[in-house]
């Protein structure tokens, strides 16, 4: 575990983020008082930020996950036959 002041952290942020990513906890201090911690991601944390934000929103109840298997596709049925669509397009263009 390391401790670092705000000013040094600001100047060398990438270095301390790499330390946290490798598993080390970094205490952030302001005038010798601990104000924050940089810790490695917890077990089960999603790899990308977008996935992590979505997972957090589901945990908090802000979002409800979709029903069904994640790899299943939603079946789509055609809304109209091509011939019908082309006929309607011709009618729309005839008005001009």
In words, what does this structure look like?
Helix content is 41%, strand content 16%. The model has no long low-confidence stretch (mean pLDDT 86). The chain contains 4 helices and 3 strands; from the N terminus they run βααββαα. The chain is elongated. With 96 residues, the chain is α+β, with helices and mostly antiparallel strands. A hairpin with a 2-residue loop joins strand 2 and strand 3. The chain has a domain at 1-41: YefM-like domain (YefM-like fold), CATH 3.40.1620. Strands 1-2-3 form a 3-stranded mixed beta sheet.
Low-confidence stretches: none
Helix content: 40-55%
Q: Approximately what portion of the residues adopt beta-strand conformation?
A: 15-25%
CATH topology of the domain at 1-41: YefM-like fold
Choose one word for the global shape: elongated
| Rg on CA atoms, Å | 27 Å
Instruction: Please report the distance between the alpha carbons of the first and last residues.
Output: 75 Å
Tally of contiguous helical segments: 4
Q: Give helix and strand order, one letter per element, not per position.
A: EHHEEHH
Mean pLDDT: 86
Side by side, the strands of the main sheet go 1-2-3
Content-based structural category: alpha+beta
What is the CATH level 1 assignment of the domain at 1-41? Alpha Beta
For the biggest sheet, the summary is: 3 strands, mixed
CATH architectural grouping of the domain at 1-41: 3-Layer(aba) Sandwich
- CATH homologous superfamily of the domain at 1-41 - what is it? YefM-like domain
Strand runs, count: 3
């Amino acid at each position: 575990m390391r401790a670092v002041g705000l000013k040094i952290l600001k100047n060398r942020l990438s270095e301390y983020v790499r330390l946290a990513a490798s598993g080390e906890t970094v205490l952030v201090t302001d005038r010798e008082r601990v104000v924050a911690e940089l810790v490695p991601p917890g077990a089960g944390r999603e790899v990308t930020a977008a996935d992590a934000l979505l997972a957090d929103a589901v945990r908090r109840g802000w979002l409800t996950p979709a029903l069904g298997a994640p790899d299943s596709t939603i079946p789509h049925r055609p809304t109209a036959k091509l011939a019908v669509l082309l006929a309607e397009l011709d009618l729309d263009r005839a008005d001009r």
